[in-house]
Model the fold of this input.
Amino acid sequence: MSALTQAQVDQLITQGCSAEDWSTVSLDGDLAHFRNAHFLGTVRVRASTVDVSVDGVALPCGIYDTTVADCIIGANVRIARVGSVVARYEIGDGVVIQDVASLTADAGSSFGAGTELETVNEGGGRVIRLVPELSAQTAWLQVFRGHSAPLRSAMAALVDVEVASARRDRGRIGANARLLHCGVIRNVCIGPHAELRGVSLLDDGTVLSCAEHPAVVGDAVQARHFVIAEGANVSGAALLDKAYVGQACKVGKQFSAENTLFFANCEAFHGEAVAVFAGPYTVTHHKGTLLIAAGFSFYNAGSGTNQSNHMYKLGPVHQGVFERGTKTGSFSYVLHETHVGPFSVIIGKHYTNINTPDLPFSYLHESEGHSEIVPGMNLGSVGTVRDGEKWPKRDGRKAPVRRDLITFGVFTPFTVEKMRAGRATLLRLHETTPKEKAAVHYGGVIIKRLLFRNGAKAYAQAVTRYLNGRVLDRVESSAASTWQNVQKALRPVISLQDPFAWTDVGGLLMPVERLRALEADIITGAVRSLPDLDARFAAIANAGEQDEWQYVCAAFAQELGFAPHEMSREQAQKLLADYDAAANALHAKILDDSKKEFAAFAQIGFGLGMTDEERQQEFTAVRGSPDTNGVVQKLAKEQAAMTERSQRLKELLAAY
Done:
């Protein structure tokens, strides 16, 4: 860019422009695109040659009715009617900034990076520092692995590097971003193709965005000390203070979040979150719902859901863990400390500290002021099946890099090992509980004696279905010509000393052994950066199928007394029979549960002023019938497919 000539300066002055020092101003292209523009410090603007559409109207690029200070501005940018000033920004090509109160950046700002969030525990001790490209896994390490001072120190050093790289003297606005009808925007970096419309206030943050999945920040939003990731939509007067909103998340309808992390595909409307680690697919849609001081993932909050973390003694120091797939019913209440096993449903108000991590798929309810549990009840729920199918389909992320690594399966080494532990606990209670006792207290809840055997049986069926099913999958896919070759295909690749211990790291299931090895590498400095750490997590995810098979082989050997690759053809035939019995029993429960949605009680609100026949007709027109409902029919087709598969495997085994 060349310096302005005196003739050009004179033209700009006649168009209402002024400058603190014209020698520090460089403007390319047609100077007619600059009117009532005021320049302070060093300003460089590339040429504007096209019109842009603003609210459906084609308007010329250029700078109009705006003061610009110390900015580098790309080509085909429109900046119009900024009330105060646009100061210290690098603005990419094609950006539109119009009707904004002010857009400023302070020299040395880190744009939200380094902000400390006291998440999960309001009393402190689980502080995480924001970085723009935060993944659920690296966040989980900072929040939930505070047992090791060397690990905390090493993680802090990795974060320091990212915070330092985020610090700069000018803010950035990526190409083709749009800022329209906004209030004050201060110390905010904005990614390409982002849309900010009607925002009230953004202060000290980063809006990541990309052409494949633009971020949207909408009407009346106020956010301080934040990161909003690609594809996220924050709108509807949402209030954020010290918050991370992950890829494809939706936050709005007056939702308030403080010291909270939302990861991929979360949805938060109407209610409030304080000190929450919301792993992937955490959903809260209703007014009067408070999520506080807890970790969630694949979670659904009923209306009026509430937890408390304050015993009015040493402050709000209590916390909860709701493992993946947990649901809370309308107006449920849980007293922290809490640790609930995966895929549990919590109904009613609970005033004791619940500790049931090894009783997954359970139904926790309130009875006469006491907390009771029905172990394994949700194994026969169609809702559990629907959850497992809907989550992969609802992954809304379109960005080229999906930072959060997610294990979607319902039945995994993580949940199956918990069922094995739960079965052992229930059988032990059955053997040791005096027969005159109708119930026992366990983990802060009551278990009725009659449920010991039923719960253990439900867990046993699910374990058999999973383990036998995985082995039969391998038999069927081996395409081996002899039984000896089948046995070879069933051998595990031994890479774990302990294949039984698994954990959920921010939505990614992995062996604890791999997690500890990774932590050791972080401490020694073998992991050099947070991107390097994310790559290591990705490598663990890629080994997931191999690790799962080693778990299956080890658990199978414990259950049956021999490893899959050691079994004879006759044992395989028995294996198939046991699988069929377990799978059909559980599937029948799920199918029956789905058909309950069409029972007489479900028709109560139908047929106003109609005969019984007309009531049935209206219900069928609105809700359908078991013969037309997609979920029920899918379950029926799965039943038929199971029968066909069983016959196919019988023929295959007979042929060896």
